[in-house]
Amino acid sequence: MPIDNHVITNTKSERVRRLVELASRKHREHSGRFIIEGPQAVREALTWQPDVVRDLYVAADGDATDAAFANATVASLAGLAMGEGVYVHKVTRSVVDHVSRDAQGVFAVGDLELCRERLSALPETPRPFIAAFWQVRDPGNAGTVIRSADAAGCDAVVFVGDCVDVFNPKVIRATTGSLFHLPVVRMDEDMFFATCAARKASVVAADVYGTEQMPPVSLPDLVRQGDVLDGAKAVLFGNEARGLDDALLARADVVCSIPIYGKAESLNLGTSAAVMLMTLAMSSRIERM
């Protein structure tokens, strides 16, 4: 079976040093590897894209050879990995914590180029539902919106312009495994709009104010009208601080805003994406909200 019963204990070893370096984009690109932290993300990677996973590291209950797994969760993941032919390494809890404080006893190393290739293929669906995000810089936000798009049944996520690296460990952790469920593609602005035109997808720009030429339609009104929602669509969200530029709003087919019924000034990106994407997903499955 593909398991090394010798427990890795030295936090200063060459192997552990290289694992720690995967937090850096430069080292990820150089090594062609990336890190997947935590039980949920690891489980989804092993379930949906097992050939992307190269090695699994799990916490052992002690440092003796043949030490038991630290708990039932990591034991289950080790069994899943071995069933897929993934090599399993036992490490001490101190090694796990040295690599990542958020790993909860387990992390995996993935093949960067293979995963990137898998993520970059847009599905040839007749009426694609795409979630797009422009200049998203915060890793937690990027992971959260991927998770929201996955929950809403989107066919793909597109990061437009200068966005955070989706292989940043914080992004992957925030997706809780959704990164391995659907395509996640990077495009510049022109390629995004050209792709939407080629797919005959209406671009719905999510923006509070819109422009004088493109005032926003409220989300409930957009759902009632139904015209834009019946076909292919791409919902474009803006930067966390600045929203969408006027030049981008001018290229959209419609601008849509989420109404605020209480005293809050606005919603953050993660909440806005969840509300709008789930609303559009539900409205496409029933005649009326």
Automatic annotation (TrEMBL):
GO terms for biological process: methylation; RNA processing. Its EC number is 2.1.1.208. Residues 35-116 form the RNA 2-O ribose methyltransferase substrate binding domain. Pfam families: MRM3-like_sub_bind (PF22435), SpoU_methylase (PF00588). Gene3D superfamilies: 3.30.1330.30, 3.40.1280.10. InterPro entries: Alpha/beta_knot_MTases, MRM3-like_sub_bind, Ribosomal_eL30-like_sf, rRNA_Methyltransferase, SpoU_MeTrfase, SpoU_subst-bd, tRNA_m1G_MTases_N. The keyword Methyltransferase applies. One of its GO terms (cellular component) is cytoplasm. One of its GO terms (molecular function) is RNA methyltransferase activity. Keywords: Methyltransferase, Transferase. PANTHER family: RRNA METHYLTRANSFERASE 3 (PTHR43191), RRNA METHYLTRANSFERASE 3, MITOCHONDRIAL (PTHR43191:SF2). Belongs to the class IV-like SAM-binding methyltransferase superfamily. RNA methyltransferase TrmH family. This is rRNA methylase. It comes from Bifidobacterium choerinum. The lineage of its organism: Bacteria, Bacillati, Actinomycetota, Actinomycetes, Bifidobacteriales.
